[in-house]
Each structure stands twice: as structure tokens, then as C-alpha cells.
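Note to self: the last two entries modelled the partners one at a time, which told us nothing about the interface. This time every component goes in together.
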Amino acid sequence: MGDVRVPADDDSHLRFRDDEPHEEPAVTLDAFLGQSNATAVRLEAGDDARALIPYLDRLRLIEVAFPRFRDGRGYSAAQILREAGYTGELRAEGDVLVDQILFMRRCGFDSFAPLAPIDPAVLDATLARYEFVYQTAADARVPVWKLRHG
Amino acid sequence: MYKYDNYDQAIVDARVDEFRDQVNRRLSGAMTEDQFKPLRLKNGLYLQLHAYMLRVAIPYGTFDSRQMRMLAHIARKYDRGYGHFTTRQNIQYNWIKLEDAPDILAELATVEMHAIQTSGESIRNLSSDQFAGAAADEIADPRPWAELIRQATTFHPEFSYLPRKFKIAVTAADEDRAAIRLHDIGLKLVRNDAGEIGFRVYIGGGMGRTPFVAPLIREFLPAGNLISYIEATLRVWNRWARRDNIHKQRIKILVHDLGREEFTRQVEAEWAAMLPNGSDVPQAEFDRIAGYFAPPAFETGLSDDIDLSDPAFARWVDQNVAAHKAPGHAIVTISLKPEGGIPGDASAEQLDLIADLAERHGYDELRATHAQNVVLPHVRKADLYTVWQALTAAGLASANLDLISDIIACPGLDYCSLANARSIPVAQKIATRFADADRQRDLGELKLKISGCINACGHHHAGHIGILGVDRKGTENYQLLLGGSGAEDASLGKITGPGFDENGIVDAVEKVTDVYLRERSDGERFLDTYRRLGMEPFKEAIYG
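The predicted structure of the combined assembly is written out below.
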């Protein structure tokens, strides 16, 4: 997972990966489970991310919907997928605002498709602001309780 | 008490910087009010009826004189010269300007304080026993665990956009002074048969419009797994809580809907899946934190005798002073419930005076209580008279702890935009009606709690006598509840019947206390008599 934001062709899509964007359209969870050899799937906020765990090896893009920025179910979905070993693109789509991206990054999202454009200067400041964190998460950051004890 | 290291300080400083940036973006119009609202709420900033209200965290109610002086300074500089202690052991200011809020946070950060997660859909400041570290009846000081939870739940990346607010309480004594079973998670520190430390875990309690006493979810959780178990609980709730109706999104509704067994099964399964994440903090970190809570070097060889020849002082000692674990010491509760006052309010001068007393006579420690009072947890008995005289001069010596005038009340319609009715004037009228000190003492322990709407911030469900203000066709109406308790014998009060107007509710309270005085057996509290007799004789007296 790259730490540097990679400018995409399109301002409305933020990516923190250095591989090629995966362009296959994402199918719904039901469609995915019902067929399929699809390699991209979309989870709605209420879908059970654990249903994807048997298929993580072949998935290249998982898109998680944020119908409202205050709906935090997608953070748990992302965390579960990363804990299960998923390494493909994990995209937050919908009502994604600059003030939520830090925690989304920590939960394992590495791609963002916000409805409204995000000011890159504010985003960079937001992501750089907290030098230390209290928790382990899906990213590589070391929590302070570990730093304190070498 | 806990002291920040460079890491804690850097995190709180970063939050000040972040919030300043968020306020600037709001003021410039880069952010809409809808987008800003959850961000400011997560920082304790509410928009009330007249102004912004800022709620400052006092983690598990523990603070010191330097912090208390800062709270007084903020009251003077940014508010109208007073602060209001809340039922989550926090303090709030009612007359704040949005553009001042970042500066206030910056000042608070200089004394290791903040307003993080004191409101909004977040994991709130956790509460604990105000006598922790001083109580004669605790098995260990619960505060190191509380601090561990504070850090683990501050800016949690997965659990910062929760379905609703989430409240945790932790105690270590058999007498429950923190109402743990009325919390989303209530933790009681216990020892198992092998002598190991762990927690009895209650989940799904709460007040509000749908009150529940939390069921027991786990008899014994090894202390070393505390954080992972809390995370598993939060994840089950975050994923499966309803999101369609704001009134049904608290964890208590999920526990109720799934049933205790199924909910427990889901948490245990999630916990098993999450254990490999390694989020449990190692013993060395716990020991580091616990080191800060080592008891002060209590003076030894002190006398336990107190000269009680001054009757007013004797009354205060009898009512507001509790047993301490160290010989020659006592726990002092400073009542913020003077007759005719606003429950929980203190002026900047009073805050400064309490800070002085803590420094001079109390090993520099202070506690805020969920009943909206302040505690000096460690006072030499030989100093009690001096402390009492200073409190008397400042109007802080009301000898009414746990009596009928020690009322918990929410801010109500005088301040709050959610309220349906005023709470403060009702509290004042009841305190005035029962102003006679002997009468109050004769009534004994009687916890009276008033909320100005069904959100129950005044804990009316948990009052021996509870009062709920509602709006009835445009006029304030007050319902009476009897039989609630937030203590170890937790129970929910029941509504007596039709409500009353402001004067009628005061009369009704008097009538139920008359029934108690008539019917009580030796040693019975109001609550005991109610539980023995049931509602009928009280109803008869009110409506008959």
C-alpha cells in the first residue's frame, strides 16, 4: 500500500496505490455471490463484508458505499477485509469528505471516489497532522503503547 | 493521577490544530453546517438555545488544582464566570462563541485537558467511581483501566462514526457509585477464584426514551483482554445496529432485539476473530499507567478523632464526609446543591477556592461526580474543620449529600434546545420546600433526579424519585416516577400516573415522602419502603 497520493486522470478519484486502476465495473454482492467470475464487487453499507472472505484472492477491487458520511459501517467492512488478508484496491465511494479520509486510510481504504471534489491541500494537511496514534489498525502505523516500550 | 507524555500531548495538540482548521473552514463557508455539525459535536460543542455550549472532558472524573484553575480561567475569560458540572463527570460552559472554541482548546491543552468525544456519535468520556483510589471498599483502583480505555477509544479509526453515542463506566467497589448498569458497557473489576483480576461485563444499559438495566454478558473477562473485548462489542454494534431511526440505534436496542444470548454469541465470535489483531495492550503499558495512580504518600500516625462540638460542622461531617482507606484521612464531597441554586453550577471564584483547598489540604486531587458534585478524595481529618470553614464562606458547605435536595437535574429548557420543560426551577422549588435541614436528614437517603425531556440527561429513570418534564399541548407538565436506582441494586422507576404542573409536582413529591415517613420500618430508606409496599399507597396519597 503506497503512502503517497497518486494523482489520477480524474480529479474526482483519489488513489493511494501505484498499480494500474482496475476498470472492470463492480457488481453487487448478490450478483457476485450468485455467479460469477467478476473481479470487482460493490458492498452497500448494510452488506456483510465477511461474505467475501472466501473470494479475496481473486478480487481486485472492492468498492464500499458511504450513503452518508456519518454512516460508519464501511469502516468496519474495510477493517474486516484487510484483517482477512485482502490486498486489492479498497475504494470508499459516495459521501466521502476530507475530514473522514484519515480514519478511512487507517482502516485500509486506499482509493476514494467522493461525490464532491476534495481540496488536495486540506487533504494533505489532514493526513499529515497526527504524528502518533493510539490504536493498531489496518495500516502500518505503530500505536503509542508500542512506541513507549521500544 | 495520570500525566501526559510527549505522545499524549502531541495527539491533543494535533486535535487543537485540526479543530481550528475545521472551524476556519466552516466560517469561510468551505464546509456546510451539516458537514461541520458531527465534527464540532465530537469536540463537545453544541449549539444550544442561546449560544454554543462547550463540554470539557474530565476523564473518569479525576483532575487536580492546576486543571481546576484553568476551568475557572475559562469560565471568566470565555463564559459568564461560571461552569456547570454534568452527569458524566464533565464540566460545560453555556455561553461560548464558536470563534473562541479553538483558543479555549489550546488553553486546555496546556493543562492536559480537552473536549474530545464529549458529545456526538462517539465513545464518550468514560465514567468511574468518584471515590476511586480512596474508597475503603474497592478491590483495586479502577482508574488505570479507565485511562487505558480512554487512550484505546480516543480517535479510534473504526469507531468514530458510530450509530449513536457510546458510554462506558468502570468501578471496583461493591457499592456502585457510577451507575454502571445504566451504561452501554458497565465494567466491574473483580477477582476470580484463582485470584486473578478481571471484569464482570454488562452491556446494553441506558436511559433515554427506552431505558434498560444492562444484562450480564460475561461473568469474567481476563483484564488483559479488556480492549479487544470492547472492540468486538463495538464492531458487532457498528455493523448491525439499526441506522433507520435515531431513537433505536443505541446498543441497548440491539441487545434487546437480538436477546442476551444471541448478542453474547455474536460478541464472543467477533472477539475470537479479532484477538489475532493484537490490540490488547501488554502488561508493561498497563504497569506504566498504573504507576501514575499510586496512592499519595499519606501521612501516618494521624488521629482519627474529629472535634464535633460545632453542631453545623458535625452535621456536615455526618452527611458529606466518607470513610477513607488511609487512617486519619477522609473523603469530602463538596455539594454543588445549595438551596435555591442551580444543581452542578459553580462560579469561577468557587472553582478557584476548591483548587486551593485541594492543593493545601487534599494532596492536590479532585474528582467530579455523576451527581454533579466535587470531591476532595484525600483530606486529613485534622484539616476537616478548616476545610469546612472555607467552604462555608464560599457557599459550598451544604450538608445534603444524597439527601432530597442533592438533586440531579439536566439544564432543561433554560438552556437546552432538545428540552420540553424546565428542570432548574423545579429543582429549586423542591430544594426550597425541603430546605429544613432536620427534615431532610429525617427523610434520609433519597435520590431525586429531574430531566426536562425523554432523553433523560437528568437520569430520572434512576431516581428513587424521578421527574420527567414533558410538553403537554404547549404547557410544561411533569410526570412523577418512583423506585429507580442507579446503584448496585439498579432498577428503573415507574410512572405514578397523570402528570402535574410545576407547583403540583412539588406537592406530589411531598406527599410521597409523607407516605414514606408514615410507613417506613426501622432503617428503611425511601427506596426500600417503596419496594416493600409497591406503588399503591403512594398513588393513593397523590391521586386519591
